[in-house]
Structure formats: C-alpha cells, structure tokens
UniProtKB/TrEMBL annotation:
Native source organism of the sequence: Nymphaea colorata
A Gene Ontology BP annotation from the UniProt entry: defense response to other organism
Superkingdom of origin organism: Eukaryota
Protein name: Uncharacterized protein
Chief localisation class: membrane
Residues making up the signal peptide according to the UniProt record: none
Subcellular location: Membrane
Keyword Transmembrane: yes
GO CC list: plasma membrane; plasmodesma
Bilayer-crossing regions: 21-42
Keyword terms: Membrane, Transmembrane, Transmembrane helix
Length: 210
C-alpha cells in the first residue's frame, strides 16, 4: 500500500492595505496640493505685467521740414523687472512705437527673451529716419516752442505678448500695453551721442492687460 506523504494545501496570499496607511497617503497628497500646487496656481492666476522704466533717452535729431516731414534719431534704454518671487516670464513678442502730437512716427520690433523671477533686463528701442507727419499750425507752433525750450514731449508705447510659468504650470498668452510719456532733451549737435542731456528716469504705465 503506497505511503502517502504530508499534504500541503496551496493558498493565495491576498495583500491588504491598512486603512491607516490609506488615510496617511490621502493626507500627504492633500498637504502637497495645498502647500505647493494651489499656491503656484494662484501665483500665476493673474499675470503681473512687470515694472517698466525708461532709464535713458538720447534724442540726437528731431527736425521738422515744413509741416509734414519729421527727421528723428532717438535711442532708449528701457528696464523691465519681473517682481514675481516664483514665476518666470516669457516675452514672445515685443514692439515699440514712438509718437509725437498724437501721430506715430516710427515702430521697431525688439528681441524676445525669458525673464526669470526677481530679475531685470534692459532693452534698447531705437528709432531713426524720417516720417511724414500732419501738423496743424497750432502743433507747429508747439514744436517750435519745445525746440526753443530744448526738449520734446514724445510718447513711447511698448506692446508685449507673454506667458508666465512656474514649473509645469503656465498661463495663457496675454498682452500688455506699456505707455511711457517722455520729456526728452534735444542733444546739441556737438555733444556725445552716449549722453542723455539731463534726461530724468521715467516710470512707464501698464495701460492694458488682457
């Protein structure tokens, strides 16, 4: 009669998760969401647009021929500061335009760049050439007065398209219109082009933010 050896039954081991462990995992996820993800989302929810100053303006030429032809040579140094403590700003398009007496006389495209948090860059819009401009007698008289005084009131507007980012979080593309109302001394013809002739640093205003 055959001998029967010891019998072993095969049982499947079923792993179970402790309710305490599940609770700790949920609490940890909530902590990460509240302390990291949520503040990040709020910090980029409303783009700041940055701080803008015209640091230096060099007006080398600003001559009017008749009432309708303006010759100009204007160079600017504009600082842009990202005040956000966490978010980077990607400037995807920048265009500057200069206007006098309500008429745009020149425009210039500027390089795109990335501006890290709490950092400042300086851009250099430059306008040179001649432009047709329609001035009435009153505007011509104002031009001559400003020339006699030695300075001109010129407006510069910078239109920017940008996005803000923090890690994997980004805003949709938004636009800012930066308006700079400048009073710029006209440099004497024999002066150095690198001087500013007494120009006063001027803060620009973010007029629209879309």
């Amino acid at each position: 009669m055959p001998q029967s050896g010891p019998q072993y039954s095969q049982q499947k081991t079923v792993e179970t998760f402790s309710p305490d462990w599940l609770l700790m995992a949920i609490v940890l996820c909530l902590f990460i969401f509240v302390s990291v993800v949520l503040p990040a989302a709020f910090s980029i929810r409303e783009p700041s647009g940055g701080n803008y100053y015209v640091e230096n303006a060099c007006l080398i030429e600003f001559n009017l021929t008749g009432k309708n032809l303006l010759q100009y040579n204007l160079k600017l140094d504009v600082s842009i500061t990202n005040p956000n403590k966490k978010c980077h700003v990607y400037y995807q398009q920048l265009q500057a335009s200069a206007s006098y007496e309500g008429e745009i006389i020149a425009s210039a495209l500027l390089p795109t760049f990335r501006l890290e948090h709490k950092k400042t860059v300086v851009i250099h819009p430059a306008f040179g050439g001649q432009s047709a401009i329609g001035l009435d007698d009153l505007s011509v008289n104002e031009f001559m007065k400003q020339r006699s005084d030695g300075f001109f009131r010129i407006n510069v507007e910078i239109n920017a398209k940008m996005i803000e980012s923090l890690g994997l979080l980004t805003t949709d593309e938004f636009s800012a219109s930066i308006w700079c109302g400048l009073t710029i001394p006209l440099l004497p013809s024999n002066s150095s082009a690198s001087g500013n002739g007494g120009f006063t640093r001027t803060e620009c205003e973010v007029k629209t933010l879309i």
